[in-house]
Batch of 3 targets.
Target 1
Amino acid sequence: MSTTTNKPPVTSLRYYDFDINLAMVKSIAETLNNQNKLSHDGPIYYVKVNIDTDYWQVSCVGLECVDTPYASSYSSSEELPESLRDKIRRLSILEPQTPEVAGVGLRVAHNTFWIYG
């Protein structure tokens, strides 16, 4: 018996996804407005989850993104690479807009993270 889901299909890296790019710009503005900063030197990943569907979107920011090890989306938290999942777990215990964790990233909202590569 086949089951269908309402999750978008997992796709390869897309550079011009309007919705996620707009969300990233809003997130950067909120982060700076809260006197936080993203001080990592290297790739930074914007990670947003739809909590209702467990659908994860990942966008890389930085010159090193050409060789990103991550896909642009994952259908569940179980599909996330362990390195990404570990950093999200660490940040999940913090309140949103708590100052960055060196080498890990920053939690922007309950469902949004900046993860350092």
Note: The chain has two helices and five strands.
Target 2
Amino acid sequence: MNKPYKTILSALFTIVMMAITVTGVQANESKEKETQELKLFNAAKVSLIDAIKVAEQKTGGKAMEAEVNDDSDTIQFKIDVLKDGKTHEVIVDGKTGSVLKVSLDDEANERTENEKE
């Protein structure tokens, strides 16, 4: 086998091995994140349905999406609520059912602005 061929094969092998390693790490991180979300969800004293109701009452809108807020170490629900054509992000405490935060969802507003351009 000539040297350039061996070099190319070696480089390809290295790239494939790196891709396999990265994929394995990402799968492990995803599984850990899912496990953490399940632990948080099980710790909730408030149901997801009740959290959605609280978010809708607080904003006067309709819930579009709800999930466990994985940005927190305590159980919180993140609910996207549509009101007057704007998406509001509502954070509800999973233990008390109280609204912790209401804000305009910047991501949804950025998409709307980009679509206008």
Note: The domain at 44-116 is CATH 3.10.450.40 (Nuclear Transport Factor 2; Chain: A,).
Target 3
Amino acid sequence: MLSLKFALLCAFAVAAMAAAASPAVAANPVVVMDTNQGTIEIELYADKSPVTVKNFLDYVADKHYDGTIFHRVIEDFMIQGGGFEPGMKQKKVKAAIKNESGNGVSNARGAIAMARTSDLDSATSQFFINTVDNERLDEAKYCAFGKVVKGLDVVDKIRKVKTGNAEGFQNVPTEDVVIKSVTVKK
């Protein structure tokens, strides 16, 4: 009986040392996007898109998104922001990042993805939130890197705003939809 207790104690000790030796896996970060239409919380999949999430969080830390607008809204497609201030004044951006599409995250309703040009590795600060399932964007290699976990009703409110043409752009809200701030949830 004593040897069984000793063996169990040793097993628990080894398991405890192994757990202490392995680094803790951090939970995926959640950002809080405060807009003039309400608040949206988005979980970012750092485990599946580390380059993209780091890029997005760097812009958050620099307060790049604060005061920007959702400058492109297509009701049954997506809402896009992160690159323009009111009046369609474009913000300066950092270098483009490597495309991480094919990470297993789909452009489903509520997913956040990087906007880009026809160059696969051209994403900088602009992002979009899918308002419907857009699996065709997976095939087109648009990198989805997170999902709205709270505030999908706010996304739906934004997707229904009136849009028109402004400064040579189409699908621009006629009244600014402002991103007041984006912060990491603690």
Note: The longest strand covers residues 38-44.
